[in-house]
Amino acid sequence: MHNDLNMILQDQLNFKMDLEIVNSFGWDLGNGSFGGLTGQLQREECDFGGIGSFIRADRMMVIDYTIGTFYREQGALFKQPPLSSVRNICVLPFKTEVWMMTFFTFLAFTGLIVFLSRVTKKFKNTDDETLTVLDSVTIVHGAICQQGCTMNLNTVSIRVSIFVLFLTAVFLFTSYSASIVALLQSPSNSINTIKNLVESSMTFSAQITPYSEVYFDETDDPLLRKLYDKKMKVEGSRKFTVASEGIARIRTEFHGFMVEVVSAYKLISRLWREEEKCGFSEIPLFKLPILALAVVKKSGYKDIFKQKIILQQEVGLKNRIIRQWIPPKPVCDSSNRANQFVSVSIKEIYPMLQIYGCGLCISIIILVLEMAYSAYTSHHGKVDVPRKNIDVSFVYNK
Fold first, then answer.
1. Mean pLDDT of 230-246
2. What is the pTM of this model?
3. In angstroms, rounded to a whole number, what is the distance separating the alpha carbons of residues 291 and 268?
4. What is the pLDDT of residues 17-27, one digit of tens each?
5. Residue closest to 187 by CA, chosen among 84, 334, 330, 332
6. Which residues cross the membrane (predicted)?
7. Shortest CA distance to 209 belongs to which of 232, 242, 244, 249?
8. CA nearest 279: which of 260, 254, 302?
9. Does residue 91 lie in a domain region?
10. Helix (H) or strand (E) holding 389
């Protein structure tokens, strides 16, 4: 971007640039001198820097800056974890008040069926057995699970209540099923701060840039220090890597990657499918200073360069360069995401497995208690019945 800026400067001021390539922007060597581009300006080996460098207090001691030009934006890029990995999606389709209303509705149906059964027997004065509470619970549970009812219901009033029960369960079941399907395809929003990033199980690395390692070493932010010590050091030689490798790891792993957005957006737009862009998030880590063209200390070029760069900004040339070089953030296409096939993993059905395991254990415990009770009553509750002689007569017709 700064090369385009310099080419316009060259035309504005009618000069010709003699370019020279250096290996770094230049950092303090500890003895008051600098290496790289800053060192050449300090030693007056060149007139100005052809690329923008960060405005830092240590550099301003030995060089001058014209005016801020562009921001070098960076951030931690990652995919939000699936909703099922951070929440129990089985209870998310309904709000708490809906769950409470559903519970009391089915509880009322249970009591109503028992009440109708007993009242009917009393008024009809029949010897038919009434439905017990457990029978009523079984009927209501069958309605909730969209199963049938095998009991013989002779009264019209109970049949009407059962009909309304199953009709109510159909509407609730339909709403619940539709919500579950949507939740299976939804990413969470559980990671939105650096603290969330540190506390998650996500691995982390950073792009190789001239400033990445320096700013991690210089930061006083305890969360950034913890992020580096806890997640980046364990990566070994992979803690700093190229942008293409880091973006590929975001795509296939639960991985975070600190990268310049210019590089990241280009790679994501070119390599990722449309549905993969959904759930993609970023968190800014460092507040980087603005870039500026540097000149020799007390150079006469400083003011004239500043005036011409301000003029470029006023007439819109700077914004044109930004739009040309910085791609927009990739946008999630919801229509493509709706067509994506999502396989249900073990995480989604884990609550059901828990219910199955608990039910199995409770059934076995109850079976053992029933067997123990039966053995106890058969051993201690046996009653000696006196024997009687019974005369039995048979009629035989030959």
1. 89
2. 0.68
3. 25
4. 888 888 888 88
5. 84
6. 98-116, 160-184, 349-369
7. 242
8. 254
9. no
10. none
Q: What is the spatial distance between Cα 161 and Cα 308, in angstroms, rounded to a whole number?
A: 84
Strands 203-207 and 240-241 come out as: parallel
Range of the domain at 276: 74-81+187-287
Closest to 257 in 3D by CA, of 279, 269, 240, 233:
240
Q: In the beta sheet, which residues pair with residue 260?
A: 74
Non-local CB neighbours of 238 within 8 Å, separated by 6+ positions: 205
What are the DSSP calls for 292-361, one per residue? EEEEETT-THHHHHHHHHHHHHHTTHHHHHHHHHSPPPP---HHHHHT------HHHHHHHHHHHHHHHH
Strands 74-79 and 255-260: antiparallel
Percent of the chain clearing pLDDT 70 (strictly above): 91
Distance CA 268, CA 233 (A): 26
Q: What is the pLDDT of residue 330?
A: 82
Average pLDDT over residues 135-149: 82
CATH code for position 302: 3.40.190.10
327 domain residue, yes or no: no
Quick one: which of 71, 73, 75 has its CA closest to 250? 75
Q: Tell me which residue of 237, 175, 251, 157 sits closest to 205, measured CA to CA.
A: 237
pLDDT of 205:
92
- In Å, the largest CA–CA distance within the chain is 144
Q: Kindly provide the residue ranges of all beta strands, DSSP E only, lying in the chain, ordered along the sequence.
A: 53-54, 63-68, 74-79, 203-207, 240-241, 255-260, 280-283, 291-296
Q: Are residues 110 and 167 in the same domain?
A: yes
Identity of residue 207:
Q
pLDDT band at 100 (very low <50, low <70, confident <90, very high): very high
Give the Cβ contact number of residue 110 at 10 Å. 20
